[in-house]
Write a structure and sequence with these properties.
The chain is mostly helical. About 75% of the residues lie in helices and about 0% in strands. It starts with a helix and ends in a 12-residue tail after the last helix.
């Protein structure tokens, strides 16, 4: 499913960039893309994928931490800890957006 979605997204981008159909067709495609992006099923799937990505990143972080151990400079370790604490806190980043 994911590969089909990526294929069709690439197809749409290639069409928009390569066509000489004009602004009207571009606006029509843009409107369609916006409607798809606002579809609850698409939004739920994207949120689920993002959540799974964060879980995978967390597991990868722990796996790397166990292997690297104390070989990471303290400044880097401090920055990683502060980012993890911030993410566990209110869920907002420096730009005021959520971590969803």
């Amino acid at each position: 499913m994911r590969y089909r979605l990526v294929f069709f997204a690439g197809l749409a981008v290639g069409y928009v960039l390569g066509t000489k159909a004009g602004r009207e067709r571009y606006e029509q495609l843009r409107k369609s893309a916006r409607q798809v992006a606002q579809n609850p099923a698409v939004r739920n799937t994207a949120e689920t994928a993002a959540q799974q990505g964060r879980q995978f990143a967390g597991k990868a972080y722990h796996a790397v931490s166990d292997k690297v151990g104390d070989r990471v400079p303290e400044s880097v370790a401090h920055r990683v800890r502060s980012l993890r604490e911030r993410a566990a806190g209110n869920g907002a980043d420096d730009w005021g957006t959520s971590n969803t």
